Amino acid sequence: MGYSIWGLKFNRNEMSGAFGDLGTDLPLIVAMLAVTDLNAASILIIFGIMQLITALVYRLPMPVQPLKAVALIVITQKVSGAVIFGGGLAIGLTMLILTVTGLLAYMNRVIPKTVIRGIQFGLGMQLCLLSLKDYIPDDFIQGYILALAAFALGLVFIGNKKVPPALIIILLGILYSVVFNFSVFGLFAFQLPAYTMPEITLEHVVTGFVLLALPQIPLSLGNSVFATNQLIKDYFPERKVSVGKIGLTYSIMNIAGSFFGGLPACHGSGGIAGHYTFGGRTGGSTFIYGLFYIFLGLFIGHQPQAILSVFPKPILGVILLFEGIALMLLLKDIITDRRSFFIALVVGLLANGLPYGYLAGIVVGTILFYLPKTWLSKHFGR
Questions:
Q1: pLDDT value, residue 303
Q2: Which distant-in-sequence residues (6+ apart) come within 8 Å of 224 by Cβ?
Q3: What whole-number distance in Å separates Cα of residue 71 and Cα of residue 91?
Q4: Low-confidence residues of the chain, pLDDT below 70?
């Protein structure tokens, strides 16, 4: 069942896959909206439009995600909207320079696959820990029970094309919200956003570069570009998507988004893993996901904090957990090579445990890979 248009499929599996990245994106966006002067409705709608455009450009479940390092800094330091947009512009221009000069393609050739597997493993570990330590315990004992039920349903239906798991998990969360907070129905009211063009000065761009771009770019290179490119090769070997194309769309999203009032955004291997794990195989899942955010912006954008009343964090945590596990399991293709497996584990631990950990992981892992094989093989095998 379903139909295809523009190379996108629309069916129950694509709809399930659409929500495979919800656990990553929604809490970060809501948290940023809570501490900034940003217009919530506009942010949600522009984020949705980015998903639609990306779906049409790639025809794959290529995600658009809020930038994680940027989000963490914004949430903890309460950065102004002007600096956020200035930082997004700085990030977009930096990635554009790396792309058009060929440096991005060069780094992709130099950095070995085992290092990328380590980046994916580290990100998967981060997502799992975030899910288990923050999201799932959010509603105390009720949250644990809800998460356990959702995780069990996910295990039962994962890979089931007739009953895709994400739809069951999301419906369980909405039912939980209705039972324990019937007033959620009163949250929905149609309202067009009041749009104003952001005013970005050179000072905002410079401040955004120092405060937001410098911590974000290493993470973006490792996850948004190189790991995303590798995951497309893993899941869709028949599709040829270069790092140059990924870098270019990343750049355009942030440059255009800054002038139209959108959050700094990226692609990401975790997002592809989430969409794919829950059934997404084409850009249809990303397109549906974009429509979802446009709906939120139009009907609940006036109360962004209430969005998590409709989609409980324990449910988002379960989706995040599956996404993280899917990324960690990618190590399976190097697990029999003790040397490569060791390097990937080192990269993952550095990425997960250090400030600028993704940069450290890429540098250290690449050095270890190019050392004479006998140096590591003495203790870790061939």
A1: 82
A2: 246, 250, 266, 267, 268, 269
A3: 13
A4: 1, 182-186, 375-382
- For residue 133 the two structure tokens come to 């330590």
> Can you tell me the distance from the alpha carbon of 148 to that of 144, in angstroms, rounded to the nearest whole number?
6
Q: Are the C-beta atoms of 193 and 49 separated by less than 8 Å?
A: no
Q: Give the Cβ contact number of residue 68 at 10 Å.
A: 21
Compute the distance between CA of residue 199 and CA of residue 305 in angstroms, rounded to an integer.
Answer: 26
C-beta of residue 163 within 8 angstroms of C-beta of residue 279? no
- 2 by Cβ neighbours in 10 Å (0-12 / 13-18 / 19+) ranks as exposed
User: What confidence score (pLDDT) does residue 4 get?
Assistant: 87
d(CA 200, CA 84): 10
Q: Where are the alpha helices (DSSP H) in the chain?
A: 12-18, 22-35, 40-58, 68-77, 81-100, 103-110, 113-130, 140-157, 165-180, 202-208, 214-219, 228-235, 243-260, 269-277, 283-299, 307-310, 313-328, 338-353, 357-370, 373-380
**Each residue's pLDDT tens digit, 155-171:** 999 988 899 999 999 99
The first and second tokens of residue 138, run together, are: 């959010």
**Residue 28, amino acid:** L
Name the token pair of 60: 């794959």
Q: What is the identity of the amino acid at 5?
A: I
- Asked whether the beta carbons of 325 and 83 are under 8 A apart, the reply is no
Q: 124 with 276: CB under 8 angstroms? A: no
User: Quick one: residue 261, left, alpha or beta (phi over 0 = left, psi -120 to 50 = alpha)?
Assistant: left
Parallel, antiparallel or unpaired: strands 265-266 and 3-5: unpaired
Amino acid in the structure at residue 214 = L
Estimate to the nearest angstrom the gap between the alpha carbon of 352 and the chain centroid: 16
Please state, in angstroms and rounded to a whole number, the distance separating the CA atoms of residues 79 and 339. Answer: 43
pLDDT tens digits, one per residue of 4-30:
888 899 999 999 999 999 999 999 999
- Residues 216-244: pLDDT tens digits? 999 999 999 999 999 999 999 999 999 99
Could you tell me the pTM of the whole model? 0.93
pLDDT at position 372, please? 82
Residue 328: the pLDDT is: 95
Query: Rounded to an integer, what distance in angstroms lies between the CA atom of residue 16 and that of residue 14?
Result: 5
